[in-house]
Design a protein that fits this description.
Blueprint: E1 3-13, H1 24-38, E2 42-46, E3 49-56, H2 57-64, E4 66-77, E5 80-94, H3 97-109, E6 113-115, E7 129-132, H4 134-147, H5 154-158, H6 181-192, E8 213-218, E9 221-228, H7 229-239, H8 245-257, E10 261-265, H9 268-273, E11 287-290, H10 292-302, H11 323-334, H12 336-348, H13 353-372, H14 378-396, H15 408-418, H16 428-459, H17 465-470
Parallel strand pairs: 1-5
Antiparallel strand pairs: 2-3, 3-7, 4-5, 6-7, 8-9, 9-11, 10-11
Domain DEP: 206-292
Organism: Fusarium austroamericanum
Biased composition (Low complexity): 301-316
Length: 474
């Protein structure tokens, strides 16, 4: 049996952007690739005590100097029924020691890792012993599922996850978290303790969200169900995908801005030091309570939603993809709050790969169009072709880790194109046009599939009912 090999490689020199960090998706991928390179995590001594599942700072910095992400898929050769083709995509991240150390500090700031000695002062120092947090392990678990990686130690690490992680939607161009009213209200309800199914523990128990103090005296006045600014910021950093204190403060500031919480004791010293923190201060001195509107929202969100169960979406009852479901899916994908809830629903039902593929190809189509309209962009075009091969190996190659459901004709056309070398008489631009056109066909097919299968299920999701009605989707 003959065997051919198709290899696509790309190397990226990691450079800090204006706010001194990579985009959040790159930060997650870099952390996950680093953690994979450090496995298995073994015990290390901290003050004469062996701490499990830890690693040394020096090992992390050394491994970050040359990280490689490799994906391989073995598939039938489209041109030879008896042959096989191995398609391999390799992406290399290169950086110097100073950048690697700075990146490790960003992992600390994002709460992906923490010092094994338990000190609150979390500065990434050489000679230190570190371990992944619950949040970091969840990020790594998502990465392994996305890339079809099997790690023997993963089951041990999963036992260290102590709660769900809320994925925050971001602007695709600026990477800034969406803080519109509807998205902020979803995050707020999770903070208070209302989970994605409308279930809620008692306010003082902190069953899902932050722990509140039943009674607190401030200036001879008693307040009920209060909490500190630091506890809000800590919860957001530990339980959502925000990557630093600044993002947590921005989200919490919008809790105040949208009248969900109100201050009962401001930290004037912090306010004077940081002028942008007039509405919210992330300190133990700053005390907040639920506003009347916030209380109403929590009670509404936690009330019984049984009436929505068992309903079917009339637009999909006939079976086929109609314009109504397509229109609803377009609305869902354009609305940050609905997209957040839709993504959660897909993840819970183990079918998030369709949305992930759709979003990644969206970027390919947009970038390809921009490059093809420009001149002297061959390097960028080759980089985009390498990214296209990664997407092919992840979502479209037979047996790929997140294989999406597209028809045989589309898959065969993509296999034919992706497993052959660029022809000598074709320019890079011609090849990019052809690859983009094929991916766009698969992109449209996956959109139709989500409209047919995923939208009707999402419309019956109690956690999304209120927002679906507000957005006019149901």
């Amino acid at each position: 049996m003959s065997k051919g090999t198709v290899t696509q490689s790309s190397s990226r020199l990691l450079c800090a952007n204006n706010d001194d960090r990579p985009q959040s998706k790159d930060l997650q991928d870099l952390f996950s690739a680093l953690l994979a390179s450090l496995l298995p995590l073994v015990p290390h001594r901290v003050r004469f005590i062996k701490m499990e599942h830890t690693f040394l700072a020096e090992d992390a910095i050394r491994n970050l100097g040359n990280l490689k992400l490799t994906q391989s898929n073995r598939m039938p050769d489209p041109n030879n029924p008896l042959g096989t083709v191995v398609s391999t995509s390799t992406t290399t991240f290169s950086m110097n020691q100073a950048t690697a150390r700075n990146l490790c500090q960003q992992f600390v700031d994002a709460r992906y890792i923490e010092s094994a000695d338990g000190k609150p002062d979390q500065l990434f120092k050489l000679g230190g012993v570190w371990r992944p947090t619950s949040k970091g392990i969840t990020i790594f678990d998502w990465f392994c599922q996305s890339n079809g990686l099997y790690q023997e130690q993963m089951s041990e690490l999963q036992c260290l996850i102590h709660g769900p992680l809320l994925y925050l939607e971001r602007d695709s161009k600026t990477d800034v978290c969406h803080v519109d009213r509807a998205t902020t209200e979803v995050v707020f309800c999770r903070l208070i303790g209302v989970d994605g199914r409308g279930k809620k523990g008692h306010l003082s128990e902190g069953a899902v969200g932050i722990r509140m103090q039943p009674e607190r005296k401030i200036n001879n006045r008693t307040y009920h169900d209060t909490f500190t600014g630091s506890s809000v910021a800590e919860w957001l950093r530990d339980n959502t995908t925000c990557v630093d204190l600044r993002e947590a403060v921005n989200m919490a500031t919008h809790f105040v801005h949208y009248n969900l919480i109100e201050s009962v004791n401001a930290d004037l010293v912090y306010m004077n030091q940081f002028a942008a923190c007039k509405l919210f201060q992330p300190t133990p001195v700053a005390i907040y309570q639920l506003s009347e509107r916030g209380q109403d929202l929590v009670e509404t969100s936690s009330s019984s939603r049984g009436s929505s169960q068992g309903k079917t979406d009339s637009s999909s009852a006939k079976g086929g993809v109609n314009e109504s479901n397509r229109h609803k899916l377009e609305k869902i994908l354009l609305d940050p709050t609905l997209r957040l809830l839709f993504r959660e629903n897909l993840r819970e039902t183990y079918c998030e790969e369709g949305l992930a593929f759709y979003e990644q190809v969206d970027v390919i189509i947009r970038d390809a169009k921009s490059l093809l309209e420009s001149e002297n962009k061959e390097t960028e075009m080759n980089e985009l072709l390498s990214t296209s091969h990664v997407i092919f190996n992840t979502f479209l190659a037979p047996g790929s880790p997140r294989e999406v459901n597209v028809n045989h004709k589309i898959r065969s056309s993509l296999m034919q194109r992706m497993t052959q070398a660029q022809s000598l008489d074709a320019t890079v631009a011609d090849t990019l046009k052809e690859v983009t056109s094929l991916l766009e066909t698969a992109h449209d097919a996956v959109f139709k599939l989500m409209a047919t299968d995923s939208v009707p299920k999402f419309l019956n999701n109690p956690a999304a009912e209120s927002r679906l009605v507000q957005a006019g989707v149901r």
